[in-house]
Design brief:
By secondary structure, the chain is of the alpha/beta class. Helix content is 41%, strand content 13%. The chain has a 7-stranded mixed sheet with strand order 2-8-7-6-5-3-4, with helices on both faces. A 3-stranded antiparallel sheet has the order 9-12-11. α5 links the parallel β3 and β4. The protein is globular, with a radius of gyration of 21 Å. The model has no long low-confidence stretch (mean pLDDT 95).
């Protein structure tokens, strides 16, 4: 009898997260000595708040209390997160509905596992964050694309969902949105939560870019419903991507399932990181200065990039991304991004990472970096576009 070939699970055959692949290629070029400007990844160039860093130094010097935490997180961090909702939104969140997770990515995985079964459908805006879709595919949950592009005003089109033969079991929204920067107005968010409640659709609200807005403030879905799963993290506004501390606010009925899943999936988020993270919620003055820099960087891109490159871009009202319409220059965003990187050292993310239907006409640029990097990137892109247009003439 011949030995059986060892298999690789079908659930692992997922599309790559292209932003991370671009980052890896750009890092390799940088390692080889090339001057690379990183606009491909949604990561603040600033470090964690000063008091968090000082607290972590003190915690590590103690050489104790570094063991496992309970699965849903340290009580004192959960209490501080609950108070954050009172402080920011005037919303009362019971501590037992708060779960600390290993970044927001794990919160989404827990949400999919706790609230949906194999074969269930979740609608998600298109364009949208690719890891939603990829995680669902790996768990046997079917992602269903909900138009949210230029023809829909960059907003999730619930009217289209109402015409579907089958309403999905779930709906993900994000405000501010990645990659478009769209913020869902409070009245529209109220309508979305009412629609989900009336139709038995589980709502997951991605709020990880809260605190980063340039026109109007983003509201939490918890203002209008207790049935939604709300996900947030310390990565974006708080400038703590590598700390891997996120959280989710759960409906009461999901608290026990999420706790059991967390116990078995990762035991707990890193204890020293949790302890130090508590101080982050009292650092608004420092963190708001980063937001002022993002706003300035945003204006640099909007005011200096060529119109042929920006095109019919998304609104860019929040988060720190500009989703550029490059259709006047190319209909292949992967090739265009590769050419741009090779010719100028500016790393960007092709739109097909976020929209498999129309993303070939778009590029996402992150303006979370230092202002001098954004200025230099805008200059290089402008020169690249001018040469491309000249060669095409």
């Amino acid at each position: 009898m011949l030995p059986r070939k060892l298999k690789i699970a079908q659930r692992s055959h997922l599309p790559p997260f292209m932003a991370m692949e671009v980052m890896a290629k750009a890092a390799a070029m940088e390692q080889a000595g090339q001057d690379i400007l990183h606009l491909e990844i949604g990561q603040p160039s600033s470090s964690a708040p000063k008091s968090v860093m000082a607290g972590m130094s003190s915690i590590m010097a103690e050489q104790r209390n570094h063991g496992y935490a309970v699965a849903l997180g340290l009580p004192e961090l959960r209490e501080r997160i609950a108070r954050h909702y009172q402080d920011w939104y005037d919303v009362d969140v019971p501590v037992d509905r708060v779960a600390v997770t290993v970044g927001s990515s794990t919160a989404f995985a827990l949400s999919f596992m706790a609230a949906f079964d194999e074969g269930d459908q979740i609608a998600l805006p298109n364009p949208g964050y690719p890891a939603y879709r990829n995680l669902m595919l790996g768990m046997g949950v079917e992602p269903v694309m909900l138009p949210a592009g230029v023809d829909d005003g960059w907003m999730p089109n619930l009217k289209q969902m109402e015409r579907w033969d089958r309403l999905p079991e779930g709906l993900i929204i994000a405000s501010p949105h990645n990659p478009t920067g769209v913020i869902i107005a409070a009245d529209e968010l109220r309508e979305i939560t009412a629609f989900c409640r009336a139709n038995g659709v589980r709502l997951i609200s991605d709020e990880i870019y809260h605190g980063l807005s340039y026109q109007t403030r983003a509201e939490t879905a918890l203002k209008f419903t207790d049935d939604a799963i709300v996900v947030n993290s310390l990565s974006k506004y708080f400038s703590m991507t590598g700390w891997r501390i996120g959280w989710m606010i759960m409906p009461d009925e999901l608290a026990a399932p999420v706790e059991r899943l967390a116990q078995n999936l990762y035991i707990s988020a890193p204890t020293p990181n949790q302890r130090a993270a508590i101080a982050a919620f009292d650092c608004a003055e420092e963190l708001d200065l980063h937001c002022e820099r993002y706003a300035h960087n945003r204006e640099i891109l909007l005011n200096t990039l060529p119109s042929a490159f920006i095109g019919n871009a998304a609104p860019c009202d929040g988060a720190f991304y500009l989703y550029c319409d490059i259709s006047a220059l190319s209909d292949d965003s992967i090739a265009f991004a590769a050419d741009l990187l090779e010719a100028t050292g500016v790393a960007t993310t092709p739109g097909v990472d976020f929209d498999q239907e129309n993303g070939h006409r778009y590029l996402r640029l992150s303006f979370a970096g230092a202002t001098e990097v954004i200025e230099e990137a805008a200059s290089r892109i402008s020169d690249f576009v001018a040469k491309r247009l000249s060669n095409a003439a």
